Amino acid sequence: MAEIPRPNGNIIETLKLLSLRGFDERETVALLVIFSSFIAHNIGRIGCQFIRPRLSNFTGTGLPDPTIPPDFVEELRRKCPDDNNTISNMLNDEDTDKARGLSVSIGTSLDNHYYKTLMRGRGLLFADQQLMANEKTAAAVTDYAIDDGIIFRTEFAHAMAKLSNFGVLTGSEGEVRHSCSH
Fold first, then answer.
1. 153 Cβ partners below 8 Å, 6+ apart?
2. Does the pLDDT at position 131 exceed 70?
3. N or C terminus: fewer CB in 10 A for the chain?
4. Confidence (pLDDT) at 44
5. Which residue in 44, 120, 123 sits closest to 87, CA to CA?
6. What SS3 state is found at 170?
7. Are 5 and 134 spatial neighbours (Cβ–Cβ below 8 Å)?
């Protein structure tokens, strides 16, 4: 879908895509947590097909993505032996993960865990980790990671309200669903 950032998009592409819709760098950082969830994570799950290209043949080099710490590359290779797997929450329970020595988990709630993970170089998607490659977006990641949630929730709510105004269908163009599954 050309309206949301690609999982393998770089920071320049991501910022351009969202700036065309009037979003600044901070709003982009706030929104990317949900875009990443909808693109690949499904809140707590991510398909290995989105991760594997970073592990062995990044941009056709035959090597892993140099921005991924080597121990994390090995961990991801164990979790994603092929593209048909999913990393299920890697895992939802952070305490269980820490006890088992996992260096990453995909959160199941909308909080600052995503941003803390990026600060440790453990972004699963290239587009996620690219937030640390730009001075302004990295500053926002840091703010959200150290925040108790108030700043993030406020800025996220503002960005979501702004996002909700795009592509609104009215009159006979739209459809009201009383049951989203039908």
1. none
2. yes
3. C
4. 55
5. 44
6. coil
7. no
